[in-house]
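Hi R.,

Here are the chain sequences for the assembly we discussed:
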Amino acid sequence: MYRFVAQRFLSMIATLVAVSIVIFSAVRLLPGNIIDIMFGGDATATPAAKAAAAHQLGLDGSYPSQYWRWVSGIFHGNMGVSLLNSRPISDTMKTALPITIELIFLGLLIAVSIGIPLGVISAVKRGSASDYLARVGGLIGISIPGFWLATLLLILFSRVFHWVPPLSYVSIFKDPVKNLQEFFMPAIAISVFTLAIVMRMVRATMLEVLSLDYVRTARAKGVPRRRVLRKHALRTALIPVITVVGFEVGVLIGGAAVVEIIFGLPGVGYTLLNAISNRDYPVIQTATLIIAAVFVVANVVVDLLYGLLDPRISVT
Amino acid sequence: MSAASATPAWEAIPRRRLIPARWRNPIGIVGAAIVGFCILTALFGRFIWTIDPNAPDADRLLGPSRAHPFGTDDLGRDTLARVIHGAQVSLQVGLVAISIALVAGTLIGLIAGYRGGIVDLLLMRVVDIMFAFPGIVLAIVIAGLLGATRRNAMIAIGIIIVPAFARVVRAAVLEVMGFPFIESARALGGGGLRIMFRHLIPNIVAPLIVLTTVYFSTAILSEATLSFLGLGTQPPEAAWGNMLSTARSYIDQSVWMSIFPGLAIMIVVLGFNFLGDGLRDVLDPRVGGGIGDVVTKK
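And here is the predicted structure of the full complex:
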């Protein structure tokens, strides 16, 4: 088990290093020099001013030394400053990261707590009207654009219930009620796709497990139906679903980025999109790395859970 | 019992159907019909509904009426004409992005699966690194860094779909490589290129067709998302995403602007998902259960 954990951990570090190199290169291989873009067509800008700006952004020196400064800076809590307002990026991220993580967590919670029961019902009542409804519903769920669903929810609540969510963000620790009022619509909007995927996956694995011999044996020796479903079948059926959940974290992060814009939640995706429209390279670089890191870490957690739940895996 | 209910002799002989039984898949057929309808709309819609999508020719922010079935937008442009134009944009972006992914992903997967060893290891590490980015976030960053145009959006969407194709193609190639006919082709002196293009590709067509259909829906959704965020097709040209983005500012005055472009996206994506599901049942029971779980195949 320790070996398994260590292995996963090392491969996570390797992936993150590779990811950071990719981001670092992508920002620099762009057509056009960042400093020139910053100064625009300003012909009066002296080379000294440009050099000072480059130094401030950590863009002087060789590429390896720039990379080293960027990465070691992150470990020291120094992520550089925004080009736009000179605000330290680490300050921005300190408020942004909890928002995105809360959104993803809520989205996942909704998706799993509704998707699993629906998938089980669909599998148990295979071929029935409710199964068919669930399957078509699942396909609709993976076809609705999250940002459109968010808009529809806003319309529904403002037109029908005459209620709009509070506009300024509050932390869940300060005012949980207001925080949840603010988060439930974006969380629903991003969860629908994942909910549908989870439901489809649970249905498929449940159908497979229910046809296995040990389930029939359990029924034959007189274990009640519900108990067989819950204790024998569902436990096994959920193991592959966990991997999908890890992948879905990525989908949720993507959905969160878009929905954060709609609801004005200053999360990581919101920060990234603002940075992109302002060509704020230091922020783009760091926000992308943080998003990739959240995704990679979530997948390692999923792998470890998988190892815990499925005794066959941990040997590797 | 009446004579009518008795089975006539000629019915006992199984009729030869035009479409074989395994192709009769209700979800797939509905999907094919939706996709077909969308393609026809994109190709010929502007000849049937001849209002100019960019001409302000009516009152602003109208609801649906006979003259404007989908209403009008903030500048008095006809929403139906703009939705039809958006269909052209979506299908074009989908087609180009999927072509990029299909060509690049198939080549990577083919070479990795055929050569094996260090080549395979290196290529698959690159694919793994691409999977470390959530797809749409990667598309946002690529499109944002390249500059907000439709061409760049197509490139960005193509790139994020490449790894999924590469992985599935590699797995399929490895499976085909195990068959004796590959060994005999090699024994007959077939070179690498010949084996790849004459023997491997024809045998992985089924998963490729399924994958193309399923990821077409991803491409269209991604295009809508990018242009919603202002990173794809630029106004005044109509695309479903940027129409929804504009509609957000007028949500208090007209909800119709927010309804129809979104419905269009949902219906097209649904069509491709239905078709993909049906094709998977018919052609390739091996490839996973839906978008999202194809890529988890390791």
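The mean pLDDT of chain A is 85. Chain A has twelve helices and no strands.

Let me know if anything looks off.

Best,
T.
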